[in-house]
Structures are given as C-alpha cells and as structure tokens.
Write a structure and sequence with these properties.
226 residues; Alpha/beta knot; Trp Operon Repressor, Chain A; 2 domains; 5-stranded parallel beta sheet; 9 strands; cytoplasm; tRNA (guanine(37)-N1)-methyltransferase activity; tRNA_m1G_MeTrfase_C_sf
C-alpha cells in the first residue's frame, strides 16, 4: 500500500510514523508513506500558499494552484483509489471505513490548514472527505495520522497475530469484552472463573455476552447501526 500525504508541516509526522506499528510496517515494506510539502509547489517567491477569502471574512484560505500542481503530478505517476481531504465536516471516520481503506493500493491524504482549502479543490480533485470527530483541529495533520494508524494496522503482515485486529472494538458494531492477564488475583480482585476454565465454548459465549452488555451500556448507538 502507498499513502501520499500532502501537508504544510511534514515534520508533524516524524513522531507517529517513527515508532511502534507504523515504523515496523514501513520497515517490512507493507506500506510506503510519502510526505509532500505543499509549499514546494507554490510559485510565489516567498512560497506562500494562502490568501484572503473572496467576499471577505475572517481567516485565510489555502490556494488551489499549489495543491492542484501536486495532485496532478502524483496522478500522472500512478492511479489512486481515493484522494481524501481531512475536514471537520467530512464523513465520520469509523472502523468500517478503516477496513475499506485498508483494501486500497494507493491513496492521497490532503491536510487542510487555516480556514481550509479553496472549494474548487474539493469539487474537482477530492473523492472523499473524512472527519475524525465533531471538533476543529489546527490542521489536518493529526487527523491524517489517526487515519493512517487505523488503516495500516489492518494490512496483512503488519500485526503479528492478524486475528487480533479482527476482534477489536467496532468490528461487529460491538465493543470488545473485558480482558485480563496475570496475576489472576490482585489485591483480591479476581479474574472471572470462566476465563480460567479452559472451556473455549464457554469462554467465547461469555465474551460475546460481555461485548453486547458493554455496548448496550456504553455505546447503545452502535446497536442501532446494525
């Protein structure tokens, strides 16, 4: 899988992509991540990429020209399954969407900044808009990092035990059941007996029941989506 990230601040990705699962996925060749500085595609002598909005109003807007040059260059080199704009008014990102994106070969993630990008970018280049929540960030970089992490961990070969990702919360519109490890008794707080029984059938039934109960209690809205 190849992911191209278009951003004004490439350095923001150094931490998230140089540790843990993402780092290992890159080293194993399961994913290629390329960071592109949009300022490099500005023809302004000061590398300016923003301007005042037509019609007035507060804030600045990212210009279409540098973004268009960069996207056109990438599109001339390969086909992309999705060109995604990270935006607070985009489609709410969830596990189902992460699963779908993990099947892609090439995707572009465009990180907005200021008041956002010129609408013509969204009208003519963007194939999908994604939001990670109903709040506004300073830019799309953190949102892009979240999307990359959620998608890359699903790629075959990235996680040692691939079945682990399939039992995460939200995979079946249910929250994951409680999990425990050693010691079985800590300060009198004991692990449920069923998990120590060795009876796989009873353990699976208990986990399914607990997943349903936790979902009803904490996220009943998920059950409405079934």
């Amino acid at each position: 899988m190849r992911i191209d990230i278009l951003t004004l601040f490439p350095a923001m990705f150094q931490g998230p992509f140089s540790e843990s699962i993402i780092k290992r996925a890159i080293e194993k060749g399961e994913v290629e991540i390329y960071l592109h500085n949009i300022r490099d595609y500005s023809e302004d002598k000061h590398k300016r990429v923003d301007d005042y909005p037509f019609g007035g109003g507060a804030g600045m807007v990212m210009q279409i020209a540098p973004i268009a040059r960069l996207i056109e260059k990438l599109k001339s080199e390969r086909n992309y399954d999705q060109i995604i704009y990270l935006s607070p008014d985009g489609q709410r990102f969830n596990q189902k969407e992460a699963n779908k994106l993990s099947l892609c070969t090439n995707i572009i993630l465009l990180c907005g900044h200021y008041k956002g990008v010129d609408q013509r970018v969204r009208d003519h280049y963007i194939t999908q808009e994604i939001s990670i929540g109903d709040y506004v960030l300073s830019g799309g970089e953190l949102a892009a990092a979240v999307v990359v992490d959620a998608v890359v961990r699903l790629l075959p070969g990235v996680i040692g035990d691939e079945t682990s990702a399939l039992t995460d919360s939200f995979q079946d519109n249910l929250l994951a059941p409680p999990i425990y490890t050693r010691p079985s008794d800590f300060n009198g707080w004991k692990v449920p007996d069923v998990l120590l029984s060795g009876n796989e059938k009873l353990i699976n039934e208990w986990r399914e029941q607990m997943s349903l109960e936790r979902t009803r209690q904490l996220r009943p809205d998920l059950l409405d989506e079934e």
